[in-house]
Write a structure and sequence with these properties.
mainly alpha, 3-stranded antiparallel β-sheet, Serine Threonine Protein Phosphatase 5, Tetratricopeptide repeat, about 400 residues
Length: about 400
């Protein structure tokens, strides 16, 4: 070990080898290590406290979110059960725990609308729209509010925003179809037919290759009496699925309205094979067959068969006119209508001698006259005694197809 000496002039510690060591260096070094340890312990303590605080905060916020979600789910149940007042309370409680949750506020707006608090619902929806103007769902709710207020322009604005908006994780194509269909139905109800027609055509143009959707839209066109467009949709459905029952029956019924009885018979037969004993299909098929059996001007008929049918049409119309005239004349007072029916019947009786197949075969012009008088009789009987049934209905349908003039 070195011998230690003290310097007489500076009091520094001298080692035997002449090395100078500051006095108290060992003690200062020991003191310095103790301070570092204390700082390290403090730092570790603060870190632990920070971690504990973070964990506690996360648990607190997780608990808030859990409570908010619990109230939200309960509100959804209440709203679906038709109890919007209860749902309003639940959604408001959920917003207490998660005030920035847009889904909670949107559900609150829906509940308010369901409970007829339109002004308050509108305030929430407008606030949501200002934050998310591209939201499909928010725009849809604003559009439905416009429908409630019968505001066509606002409905068009928000529904179009919804149709072309962002639907997030939801099936955007389906949501857009449903939105456009709802808008169409509103426009029809308001008598805004040009706008409604535009929406329906857009809906049809955007359909995916799915038979059931084409059938659905085809039925909408059919109900709107747009039979040519309905026919296109049913035909598209059959291209996708040639055995689709709805497309077969829809196309058959549409062809009936378009006076295409041959195709109507074809599709209704196929539909009935898919749905045996369906009374509506049986009735329509019978109607198509009756028209085809009685129409004197069905393409491809031999001349003799054409004249046989012309005679049958005349006799059937004359019998109906006679029954109608008797019904009208049986009242307490003879009316002018009854007199007109009787006069027309007299004309038919006078023409009857020439209404024979062998005569009409030789003179086609007489067949035209007979057919025209038969139509006049059917029209008068319909006006005075109501819509025809059975074979008379088939005759009227056949005459309607020809416009009263044989081809």
């Amino acid at each position: 070990m070195d011998d230690i000496h003290h310097c007489k002039n500076c009091a520094k510690v001298l080692l035997s080898g002449g090395e100078i060591r500051p006095q108290g260096l060992a003690e200062n070094r020991r003191g310095s290590l103790s301070a570092e340890a204390i700082l390290l312990i403090c730092a570790i303590g603060l870190l632990i406290l920070f971690i504990i605080t973070g964990i506690a905060a996360r648990k607190y916020h997780a608990k808030e979110r859990a409570l908010g979600n619990e109230w939200f789910e309960h509100g959804e149940i209440e709203l679906k059960a038709g109890r919007p007042e209860n749902a309003i309370t639940d959604f408001r409680t959920a917003l207490v725990y998660s005030p920035a949750d847009g889904a909670y506020e949107l559900s609150l707006a829906k509940a308010l609308l369901a409970a007829h608090y339109e002004d308050e619902a509108s305030a929430h929806l407008i606030r949501l729209w200002e934050h998310e103007p591209e939201s499909g769902e928010v725009n849809l709710e604003l559009g439905q509010l416009a429908i409630h207020n019968r505001n066509v322009q606002e409905a068009l604005r928000y529904f179009h925003n919804s149709i072309y908006g962002d639907w997030g994780q939801r099936d955007a194509a389906e949501e857009r179809r449903e939105a456009r269909l709802e808008l169409y139905q509103f426009l029809v109800a308001r008598g805004a037919n040009p706008q409604a027609q535009a929406e329906l055509m857009a809906l049809a143009a955007e359909l995916p290759p799915q038979a059931s959707l084409h059938v659905q839209v085809g039925q909408i066109f059919f109900n709107a009496r747009q039979y040519n467009e309905a026919q296109k949709q049913f035909a598209l459905a059959l291209q996708i699925d040639r055995n689709d029952k709805g497309a077969l029956s829809g196309l058959g019924e549409t062809d009936l309205h378009l006076d295409d009885y041959r195709n109507a018979e074809l599709y209704l037969e196929r539909a009935l094979r898919k749905d045996p004993h369906n009374p509506n299909l049986e009735r329509m098929l019978d109607e198509a067959r009756q028209v085809l059996s009685i129409d004197p001007y069905e393409p491809g008929l031999p001349n003799a068969e054409r004249m046989r049918r012309t005679v049958q049409v005349f006799q059937q119309a004359k019998d109906r006119l006679r029954d109608c005239a008797q019904t009208k004349s049986g009242g307490t007072q003879a009316s002018q209508a009854s007199t007109d029916l009787q006069d027309l019947y007299v004309r038919a009786v006078k023409m009857e001698p020439m209404v024979q197949e062998k005569i009409l075969i030789r003179d086609a012009d007489k067949a035209t006259v007979v057919f025209s008088l038969a139509k006049e009789m059917e029209d008068s009987a319909t006006t005075q005694c109501g819509e025809p049934t059975g074979l008379n209905k088939a005759i009227v349908l056949a005459m309607g197809e020809r416009g009263g003039n044989p081809k």
